[in-house]
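hi! just following up on the protien thing from before. the input was this:
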Amino acid sequence: MSIFALFPRRRAACPGARAHVVMSALLAAAVVPAAAQDEAKPPQAATPAAPATVTAEKGRFEVVLEAKGDFEPVDPVVVQFKPEQWAQALEIVNVVRHGTIVKAGDVLVEFDTEKFDRAIADLEVDLAIGERAIEIARRELPVTEALVPLELAASEREARAAGEDLARFLAIGRTLAEDSARFRLRSAEESLKYNREELRQLEKMYRDKDLTEETEEMILQRTRFEVESAEFNLRRAGVENEAALELEIPRREAALRDAAEKTRLGLEKERATSGLALEQKRLGLQKAERDRAEALRKMRDLKADRAAVPLKAPRDGVAYLGRLHDGAWSTGVVAAKAAPGQSVLPGEMVFTIVDPARVAFRIRIDEKETHLVTPALGGRVELTGRPDAEVAIAIEPAAALAPVPRDGKLDVRFAVTVPEGAPRPLPGTTGAATCRVYEKADAVTLPATAVSRAADGTREVWLPGKDGAAPQRRAVRVGRSSGGRVEILEGVAAGDVVLAAKP
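and the predicted 3d structure came back as:
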């Protein structure tokens, strides 16, 4: 018998390891024949390792929800200067500090209201001017309505007269003007001719009669001047005749034609626009009345905005700078501007008045943990600043602030009950909650990896097969899970052995 027959498993695990079969020089003679005989045989396959198993255990099982959160006020009152009309920045004169205890009516922030008051005074003047303008428009409108037909009739008469003047000029006036100009020229010519003839007759007569020299000279001198005047009048009449025929009469005709056309166009325009102009006045009055109504509303809002300054506390409590949103305070943003001399826009100064005796505890949990939250959920909170003190909390009937998870999270709010002698948590402080969701003293549990889900959605475990047989599936009903273990309600008893994972 070979020595390897005594160690079959070791040899199977190391087939062909010839360097290790020489154990000593004393066994060489016995070993060599056996080794040579074994090497002639084909190598044997390794025995497969048995699958890992776990045993169902019975004992105390509990599910605990642990989460960090913060204390927030119950029914806080947000106080903010949010005017309806005023939109300019105001300078802070005085402002309370964060965490100041206030009474109802105490001033939270006081502003410099000089610009505010000046704007109201200016608007009052504008309202008075607008009221006078509306009154004037109201009185003008009926007069305009009465004047429109009168002015239209006057325009019609003017257009008709201009047309008649042009027609008369073309029919009579032009010819008469031209004849008058020619007749004035002829009259001047005849006058000159007469004066010259008279002078000739006088000169002849004075030569034939015995008159004194002085009388003769006087009459002749006068007659000669008359001739000279007639010559000048003739020259002037010629110039005037030329101007009348070439300039004045054509220009007068052109002026009459233009006047007639202008009055005709003016009449057409007045007929087309007089009604529209009147309607425009009516609409203008309506708009002015609407503008005044809007200005009055603006004045009411502006005075209401002014009445809200200074900003006062609506109730007793503690004044916090900023507001609470999704568990976070905006104190830092507001505090950066809450100082005398700072100019802030409407809405930037926000205060939250809280009752420090009424707080709740708020946590945010993962969506996968939402099934742990029930109206009966209770537990305790350990204050971050006082780890030695514990405050009992109880969940409100409406546990979740957001009924639908948001961003994979769910907000949960607990009512706080402070035991006698325990420190009272303030809004804004933080803590850690420990809530016992479920506990059972004799629960049967398995590791979570041993329980799988079947194709039909039910839960199952796999029992190891006996004597090399295939594993057997067994349906189970599960309860809670925690810490990597699953509670088994049906299908497996304590002590049962199952595969550690689905085969």
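Residues 125 and 131 are 10 Å apart (CA to CA).
Residues 114-208 form the longest helix (95 residues).
cheers
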